[in-house]
């Protein structure tokens, strides 16, 4: 029956195969979040990426422990998976809790860290100029490259004037950054509960006796 040893074993194996798929989705979503902007600093999204990579490694341990019904491997798998659940759940909640002001602060930090070549690439890719505005600091040196090329693209068939200029990059990237946080947080939160299911199933499976095992063997 389904509550027996064989069913628990097959369910745990299937769940770990699912974890590999889930980890691939988390990695893909996190990579999209990092690539949604070339300059924004998204450390929380990086946490989702790390959870995805770690989940793949843990699922391999779980597969080996489930196939062999190895008590020690299953114990460490259970403990590490529960810790990963706590981390991923916390990071996912943090992604969903980040507001627009915090997103802008992270984006500003990323913009300040990169060099002019990357900023120029961002401006050309997203058809924007500067981060928040085109103001020039008191030292007379702008923190963004020339906008002549992108302005010509933004103002095709029009005369480039102060009224016809590319928008600041933050306005262009704001929606992308928000989507990256919400997507990573939502998927991370949803799949974190499957890890809790894995912990429960592992506890159940460890306490079941293999009918084909040697009764005198402990491991």
Automatic annotation (TrEMBL):
Q: Which Pfam families match?
A: Tetraspanin
Supply one GO CC term from the record.
membrane
Task: Recite the UniProt keywords alphabetically.
Answer: Membrane, Transmembrane, Transmembrane helix
Q: Which InterPro entries does the protein's record reference? A: Tetraspanin/Peripherin
Parts of the chain that traverse the membrane = 12-32, 44-67, 74-99, 180-203
- Where is this protein localized, as stated in its record? Membrane
Q: Specify the protein's topology with respect to the membrane.
A: Multi-pass membrane protein
Q: What is this protein called?
A: Tetraspanin-13 isoform X2
Q: Which species is this UniProt entry from?
A: Papilio xuthus (Asian swallowtail butterfly)
Q: What gene does the UniProt entry assign to this protein? A: LOC106127659
